[in-house]
Amino acid sequence: MRLHLFLLLALCPASCTARTLIYSLRGSWRIRNQNGSLQLLGTVPGCVHSALFQGGLIQDPYYRFNDLEYRWISLDNWTYSKEFKIPFDSSKRQKVNLIFDGVDTVTKIIFNNVTIGKTDNMFNEYEQCSFSWDWGPSFPTQGIWRDVRVENSAKEWNLEIQSSFDVVSSKPVGGQVIVTIPKLHTQQTRDIYLQPGERIVDLLVKISKNTSVETWWPHGHGNQTGYNMTIRFELEGGLTIEKSARVYFRTVELVEEPIEGSPGLSFYFKINGLPMFLKGSNWIPVDSFQDRVTSDTLRLLLQSVVDANMNTLRVWGGGVYEQDEFYELCDELGIMIWQDFMFACALYPTDQGFLDSVRAEVAYQVRRLKFHPSIIIWSGNNENEAALMMNWYSIKPSDLKTYMNDYVTLYVKNMREVIFSGDKSRPYIISSPTNGAKTIAEGWISDNPYSKHFGDVHFYDYSSDCWDWKIFPKARFVSEYGYQSWPSFSTLEKVSSKEDWSYSSKFSHHRQHHMNGNSEMLLQATYHFSLPKNTDPVRKFKDTIYLTQVVQAQCVKTETEFYLRSRSEIVNGEGHTMGALYWQLNDIWQAPSWASLEYGGKWKMLHYFARRFFAPLLAVGFESQSALNIYGVSDLHSNCKVRLTVRVHSWSSLQPVCSLVTSQLVIKAGKAVPLYKEPVSKLTNRCGNCTRKSCVVSFFLSTDSELFSPTNYHFLSSLNEAVGLLEAHITANISQKGDMFIFDLKTSAVAPFVWLDVGSIPGRFSDNGFLMTEKTRTVLFHPWKPTSKSELEQSFHVTSLRDIY
Fold it and tell me: Which residues form the Beta-mannosidase Ig-fold domain (predicted)?
């Protein structure tokens, strides 16, 4: 995010080296509102809200009800101004450019009292305003906010390089370009001839088929290998221009083909020829104020993605195109990106002015982002096909054809054309959800975009019992699904006061932007848990927060495990699920939402669950027709020989009631296979005096006695019906080892949903929210900032389910 002057010396005398002189205008600017009653200094990059806050003129915009109190800011007009002198003689330069990398949104740019430009599109290198969604506040911001394609055949890799020039000359300029990739022992030279004006030079570099090229792989599947490349232009007159870049090699294919035993088509991705289950979440803007998004924040959030065994994020179409560093980190960490264009949940105009703006936006973003190996698909919009065909906006039947034509005009005749003219290396779908190839065959709009036999689906159901896996769609790919929870008390405490600390407070209602969201969380909780009963209102609020996180984690676990085990089977014509991206990863402020990471990055219980259910090898349990079934799910590249251990525990004892270890079983690479099936009645009879209400089942996969998967569990009854569940007294002995801290836990009883919390000390545990069935357990704490044993001991608090009753 920057604002600067970009000076380009296009031609030099003989023996001159080309220099691009950049004079940055970042730093202090004067800001005033329309009538001049407010004048202050602000920082660029930045926005008006940030300047007012930093100047002490407003409180933290996220505090309590300030999103309402400060709406006047976005309703006013604001002027940024700066006086400066260029520290060199601009008259000796053939061209001087003033470049705005990001301006939000409708502005007029005046230079020395002359209007030199206007802006109306935040996404076009100089964001339509981001107003309130049901997961975030409304802060329409204003200000200056933002500072190669590879192909291969069976025998060789081809590297396509695009270089843009603005040739300020009265005659053509000739010369040579030399492309060098040292580690691939590649150097190629070709002659070039540049005509005056703005030009793009396309270069094709063929990598010898005898050269061993290491491909870029998603996290969990291999290394993220890249190569340093140098491009050197040696032009007439002794002009030399040199550019370095990082280049990656990988292929992507969206496979839509018939499936035996099922109507419709598959919908899955092959990366470097390998079919891959996409497991991950949806990414939304990190903050309402983009100038507050730091490199450290991005790295923290994206590291939490791979730490939870995810390989994919969907950048949702109602937010922003992320800054370059986001995509660079995804390249580095191996996070695949499903990239929406910024169109969501709305019907858009198709007048020529708007179409021109969109075409420029799409061309710019494709040009900016296409060389990132992490981006594997472009998607035209979020839910607009569904909105049109499900008639979310009550369109009159007589007008529907007009809206359908407008939809095709925007996303197909314009956006699709621009995308493929700039990048043919990735698939493009025009919406999510969509029926993919079926949508195309139906004229780009399907009658039912939520079909389970084609494309991807979004699924939400807050009223049905989420422990019942039969409510979930056995679809080809599920790119949105989820449940809400509240963030931890330590996160809320920063933006609230004591009078707010009640589930029924005005603050709690105001912070919830999803209609009936707070009551839906409690409804889902009552299916299997009792609600907190503490007479202390603050303690009851904290207990309710804890319970919403338990419910969210358990609901998303049940749904995700259903999708994971559906990848290799067709049941009643449905299945072959090859993607699960829950909604949503991160939070934009401190409020109840679907996120698994709180504002600031703290892990909710769901994120710890995700670390387990997205493990590369997992045992998944579920009941069908009163029998317990256990599947083995593998993301490994080779077949795996394992043994399954099934244990039955009594709620009233830390000693297992019985245990079973199978003979050696084989889980095929990338598949889900059934490993075990037993009627629950037979299981409980076999294990002494067990009943559904008095016992719980745990299971894991191992090889040669080595733990090879997380330990999973299956509840045989609702927890509010559990018999023998005791109040557990859990203690922790904390010690330090290097940069980590060791928590040696002891419990007096079996404890479900054990939650370790160290308040506002930033960091994460190696595991949390777990079922503790043994007397002792060791958990590691990874701090994100320096801390101490004494600080952790003072902040540490542990909660298990029985504690809230």
Answer: 726-804
Q: How many residues does the chain have?
A: 805
pLDDT given for residue 439 in this prediction: 96
pLDDT in tens, 283-330: 999 999 999 999 999 999 999 999 999 999 999 999 999 999 999 999
What is the average pLDDT across 547-564? Answer: 98
Mean pLDDT for 542-570 is 98
Q: Between these two residues, 137 and 553, which has the higher pLDDT value?
A: 553
Instruction: Report the mean per-residue pLDDT for the chain.
Output: 91
d(CA 191, CA 189): 7
The residues annotated with a catalytic role in the active site are 383, 480
Number of domains in the chain: 5
Instruction: Tell me, yes or no, whether 5 lies in a domain.
Output: no
User: Model confidence at 144, in pLDDT bands (50, 70, 90)?
Assistant: low
608 and 635 part of one domain: no
Strand 186-194 versus strand 239-247 pairing type: unpaired
Q: Would you say 340 and 432 are in contact if contact means Cβ atoms under 8 Å apart?
A: yes
Find residue 619's DSSP bridge partners: 632
Please indicate, yes or no, if residue 451 is contained in any of the structural domains: yes
Residue 210: predicted pLDDT: 87
Q: Are 483 and 594 in contact (CB under 8 A)?
A: yes
d(CA 549, CA 555): 10
Q: Is 400 strand, coil or helix? A: helix
Indicate if 74 and 101 belong to the same structural domain. yes
pLDDT in tens, 261-276: 999 999 999 999 999 9
Same domain membership, residue 217 and residue 345: no
For 775, the domain range is: 730-799
Structure tokens at 780: 């590691």
Distance CA 581, CA 458 (A): 10
The pTM of the full predicted model, rounded to 2 decimals, is 0.91
On the question of pLDDT at 227 being above 80, the answer is yes
CATH number at residue 84: 2.60.120.260
Alpha-carbon gap, residue 496 to 241, rounded angstroms: 55
Query: Domain ends where: 93, 120, 149?
Result: 149
Amino acid at position 412, single letter: V
Dihedral angle computed from the Cα positions of residues 220, 149, 455 and 379, in that order, rounded to the nearest 10 degrees: 110
| Same domain, yes or no: 91 and 216 | no
Cβ atoms of 714 and 677 closer than 8 Å? no
Residue among 644, 556, 547 at smallest CA distance from 596: 556
Please list the residues that pair with 702 across neighbouring strands.
643, 707
Return the SS3 of 162: strand
